Amino acid sequence: MKKKLSAIIFATIISASCITTMAQDEVFIPSVSGVVEQLDPNPQYLPMSDQNNIRDWQLSLTMSDEFEGASLDSSKWYNYHPFWSGRSPSSFHKENVRVEDGQLILSSTYEETPTQTILNLSKVHGDEFHTYASAAVVSKNKGGYGYYEVMTRTAPVGVSSSFWFRDPKVGKREIDVYEQVGRPEDGNILKADGSTIHGNTHRFDYADGKTTTTPFTVHTGMDLTDEYHVYGLEWGRDKLRFYFNGELMYEFDNPEKQEIFEPLHAIFDMETRLFDIKKDPPAEKFYTYTTEDGEERFTGDFHVEYFRVWRSDVDQDPSDHEITVNDYEHPINNFNASYGSPASMSDPVWANAEPLSAMHAKKGEVTADSQKTVVKSMWDEEYLYILADVFDSEVYRNSNPSALHESDCTELYISAYKERNKGLYNLDDFWIKIYPDGTVQNHENMPAGTICEAEVTPTGYRTLYKIPHELYNGRAGATIGFDIQINDASATAGARHTILGWNDTLNEAYRNPDVFGQLTLVGSNGETEPVSNMPFISFEDSEEVVWNVTGNSKTESEIVSYTGVNAMSVTMGERASNKNEVTMLTLAPTSGVWDIGGNDRISSVIRNTGDSNIQIRINVVDALGNEKMNYFTVAAGTTKECIIGPEKLGQPGVNNADWTGDGHAGNGVDTSQITKIKYYMPEEMANVMAGVKQATFVVDEVHATR
Known about the structure:
Elements: H1 2-5, E1 13-14, E2 19-20, E3 28-29, E4 39-40, E5 58-60, E6 77-78, E7 90-92, E8 97-100, E9 103-107, E10 109-110, H2 116-125, E11 132-134, E12 136-143, E13 146-153, E14 160-166, E15 173-181, E16 196-203, E17 212-213, E18 216-219, E19 229-235, E20 239-244, E21 247-253, E22 264-269, E23 288-290, E24 296-298, E25 301-311, E26 334-339, E27 360-363, E28 374-379, E29 383-391, E30 409-415, E31 429-434, E32 440-442, E33 451-457, E34 460-468, E35 479-490, E36 495-501, E37 517-521, E38 547-550, E39 555-562, E40 565-572, E41 584-587, E42 601-608, E43 614-622, E44 627-634, E45 639-644, H3 646-649, E46 664-666, E47 674-680, E48 695-705
Parallel strand pairs: 7-11, 26-28, 26-37
Antiparallel strand pairs: 1-2, 3-12, 4-5, 5-25, 6-12, 8-9, 9-25, 10-11, 12-22, 13-19, 13-25, 14-15, 14-22, 15-16, 16-17, 16-18, 19-20, 20-21, 23-24, 27-36, 28-29, 29-34, 30-31, 30-35, 31-32, 33-34, 35-36, 35-37, 38-41, 39-40, 40-48, 41-47, 42-45, 42-48, 43-44, 43-47, 44-46
């Protein structure tokens, strides 16, 4: 990536009180020749997600705007979009932009009579633009790495209020911090209560013409059109992170996915017909009303309270973060798979399996026939079995090969590690469709050896999925991500008129595993809880001693107390020159092995008490001789929960590596035969933690979980 960055021009950044040259990877290129960025090193405002100013942010006076003037600051903004006329049928109008009462206001209006702008556009584009006048505001300066934050109240009409970045003249990249279609007239993904946030990034420059995206959707549970909320973007070379009210919504590895390194213009705008919206708002939706607070408000107004930009010389933390949004309340239902080995779809053993709870309509309506549809699940040591007995008076197959999906079929979704808020299919996620005639369509990640069967019945059809336990540990108490969908089509409609779902309420399961529910493998004796003999290790006086510390002559260790709770403190007094003398904390059973049972991850709390970032490596060793190394970057003076999940534990004996973010390498381990868990820093590797001669890490709360 350094080679790509070397082609970028780096400006000298001047503040009122000092001259600061930004780090090479911190990008800012003004679009006006001779303009340099003025920074305030002691800003009054800080990013909502970093109120302690861990990264020593400096406010960009050049780009930030509180909108306190009588009109839009023309030295910072265009009151139109210099690259685009708008998303039809709406078009951007300068007169729909104003500054009022310390706010930037973009407005969308319904035009009974074509405006002059619409008439001018019609000469070039015909009748593409009509009916709706909207607005756009674009920054004259372009920004790169830094932190961007806005406080906005979106428009309560079914037109988008958006904050994004783009420069089509230079960069083939786009960052959509958020797009919020107030209260849409018609949509499946976007809720009509104004609660939905949609974000994305785009890359357009592939030689084969393909575009890659990183979409995510969050349902906040709040009406975003009613009150002001804060949206943030932390844009770095390593990570792009998206925030809502100071909490992380979504993040991804920039170099691994989109390579968004070039500076872009910041944009506020309003558009019609985004996402799955099919109906633009009618004239009667545009009106002035009085809010509960007595404010006179127009439904088409998008309010921006401020736009703030910060830069930092402090390196971005490249590690993965826990993603939580308090009001993300998508349901997570659980379905139990009974223990058993059905030989066929009609095997009597299916009578022992409990049926799935009632399904809901993601499209169309739940009919009397569809209420009779039964879904059951069983498992044994080799397979997970899913049976769907579908009641359908008309078994229909679309004759158009390209529209096969608009036919009757069942659709299964599996996520082996059941992560939430990743928003995209990973290597352990897949879907499979089985049609009544036995035709199968599947995601590329479907495990080898999967068996799919189907048969037509007097009341409809049946499908059976037999999925080998290749991507997860198939044993009692294990839980995986799961959902199922029933597609009902007809000759009259020529397509699916009804889509039944179990957990997914957004009709997004085909692309977003976050909406899956969960399936738990129930043991032959009815056990559903994980069975584990690995103790919770927190170094308290009452615990059995299952630890020891080794190293060189400068290695020290002690049990310390933080607010009355014990933890193990390990100090590297000087760096070792060979692996045999590395400072190491080892946890091991006093006899036998540890089995984490139905749990699928090992968690540790690690504190870095020093002034420098350190890399902690956690190696898990099993009785078969496999060893899986995991590393975590722990920032100076911080505490981090380090979780080794199923992907990082891997499959026994399989050597794989993932060095992005907090990475892992080595042979996967058998989690039922753990013999050691080792904590250490790679002291002998001079290129890791360069310059760090002494360091202390504190370990606590080591336990198996799921």
